[in-house]
Amino acid sequence: MRHLIFLGILPPHIIAVDSLEEAEMIKLINNSFRDVSFAFANELVFICDKFNLNTVKIIKAATEGYPRNRMALPGFVGGYYLRKDPYIYANSALKYDYISKLVLNSRDINESLPNYVINKIGEFSKAYNKDKNVCKVFIIGFAYKGVPE
Questions:
Q1: What confidence tens digit (pLDDT) does each residue in 96-133 have?
Q2: Domain annotation covers residue 38
Q3: What CATH number has the domain bearing residue 55?
Q4: Which pLDDT belongs to residue 67?
Q5: Is residue 99 domain-resident?
Q6: CB 85 within 8 A of CB 31
């Protein structure tokens, strides 16, 4: 007879908290913090573009030999929780008349990235006298979570 062992899938340690509310807030702040980090990197794209600078190169140079700053690289923020948890976090603060400007502005930045990319494709097609409506764009990427990153 085969037995299913649930304990084998638990993480190696458990973090004790005093309430479900604490546990939920921990999840919300982790995902919101990641969203804010991605927004900073994405905002750098907008700024570096004005100076005709390579954002990824700038970030890598800024963090070289400086282990305290693990700066995110720019890109689309995906995943259900990274898109919804910052709103839950911000809305929970509204119940107490606090507006979480940082988190909400970060969501705005991350949500504006697809339009920015579409506009850049339009600029590219115009520069090369190509009809943007017939251009083909190949998008490739990958996702990760956990270790190794």
A1: 999 999 999 999 999 999 999 989 989 989 999 988 88
A2: yes
A3: 3.40.50.720
A4: 77
A5: yes
A6: yes
Q: Which domain holds residue 94?
A: 6-127
Residue 134 is predicted with a pLDDT of 83
If one counts the domains in the chain, the total is: 1
CA dist 73 and 76 (Å) reads 10
Q: Is residue 137 part of a domain?
A: no
Q: Which residue has the higher pLDDT, 63 or 139?
A: 63
The pLDDT score that the predictor gives to residue 76 is 86
Polymer length of the chain: 149
The Cα–Cα gap between 62 and 51 comes to 16
56 falls within a domain: yes
- What are the distances in angstroms from CA 124 to CA 27, 70, 74, 75, 131? 40, 32, 20, 19, 10
Number of C-beta neighbours around residue 88 at 10 A: 14
